[in-house]
Amino acid sequence: MKPSFIFFPIAASALFLAGCETTSSHQSQLASFESELGEQSYSISSDSSQSADALDWWKSFSSEELNTLMDEALAYNHELQAGVERIAQARAELAASKSTLWPSLSASGSASRQRQSVDGSGSSYSSSIGAGIGLDYTVDIWGSEKASRQISEIGLLTQTLTEESLRLTIMGEVANGYFATLAYRDRLANSDQTLEILKETLDILEARMEAGRVSELEVAQQRSAVATAEASRASLATNLQTSMNALATLLGRYPGELEIDHTDLSGIELPSIAFGQPSELLERRPDLAASEQRLIAAGASVEIAKAARLPSLNLGADSSLSRAGFDSPTQTALSLAAGITAPLFQGGRLKANQQLAEAQQRELLETYYQEVLEAFREVEDALASVQGLETRESALRRAWEEAQTSFDLSNDLFESGRIDFQTLLDAQRSYLSAQDTFLAVQYDRLAAAVELYRTLGGGWQSS
């Protein structure tokens, strides 16, 4: 019979060590993966002395109005305020989880009075009072309670990181909304200038048609160009208003209440953003940090599932006072107890729970790998966009300048009768299209810079 008594501790130790080996294996895989990242580099190198670690990264655009809008969004955006309350909930859950590490203490009290009738003798009365205190504590032999507390701590940290990620996203939306508003104003002003040019040309053509110098066809073509420009202007005006409405909502305001003082993109500086090695991204991106914390929590869940299959030790103590009446002597009682409980047969449920927890841990490990790779792809895409748009803007600037020269020359040649109206109309369309496209790419470059800040983790603090 003796070997049967030592079977439980041996089996329990083997099960516990096997679980530790599983957790260590995942930690080793994770360390190896992160080590490989340290050997990688981005496809585009940084030659800027400006760092992306500034918490208020949007200040690098040198816009006081944008800085003011960001401060307002941080203070009044309802999504961010809801996030603060989610963090408060996680903090309360952590406080509640800490109670499991301490003994539970309970108190009880009672009082009674009884009347007993005796034949021919009247009634007799008896009273009793009592009070007691009970102490109960489950010894955390296998660390399951500690693991539960760790999960709650990770829950608070993960929620905080999730809200940091939300903050980064909303700040990016505010910056993009502000730049889009200014870009639409720029393009709207250009559209007004376009209409003015088109209408001036139409007036000239109508006068020439009356003089018999041009045909009605040429006038109709110019009228069509004016109508098309008016439709384009109406679309830009609608986009401007919806952009301002979206920005107002991000600031916690009612749509339509927002006033933007700046009229165009002039004065907005395009920052030169520095970035380090890919391995640094794991520390900078709050979403990746949150994913890693969820992986750690999954490891703690495995420990809890293992501990559920092992014996548990419970300690208890009870103390009580009682007396039969106010004049009776007080009786005291004290009891101490210790008990071991071990699951013998659960139909495979506990083993299945452990296998489930281990499978979930492996799933989160693979999910973490994928999220890291996706984050690197986002950075590479943002870098390619920043570089490509720089080249595109330079080319579009040249195209706009050449189109303007061509339009000016065409006007002179048309006035002297050396070219027909169709040639002038083509030059006019090319110039106006090139100008609008050039204005649009200026916004695209600013939006690409905002996206690069986001993919690099912006300027969140991990404290």
TrEMBL record:
The protein's matches in PROSITE patterns, at most eight in alphabetical order, are given as: PROKAR_LIPOPROTEIN
InterPro entries xrefs: MdtP/NodT-like, OMP_efflux
Transcription as UniProt keyword: no
* Domain of life from the UniProt record: Bacteria
Q: Which Gene3D superfamilies match?
A: Outer membrane efflux proteins (OEP)
Any one of the GO CC terms: plasma membrane
Query: Topology in the membrane?
Result: Lipid-anchor
Report the Pfam families cross-referenced here. OEP
Q: Where does this polypeptide localize?
A: Cell membrane
Entry's family note: Belongs to the outer membrane factor (OMF) (TC 1.B.17) family.
NCBIfam families attached here?
outer_NodT
Q: What is this protein called?
A: Efflux transporter outer membrane subunit
Organism source for this protein?
Answer: Pelagicoccus albus
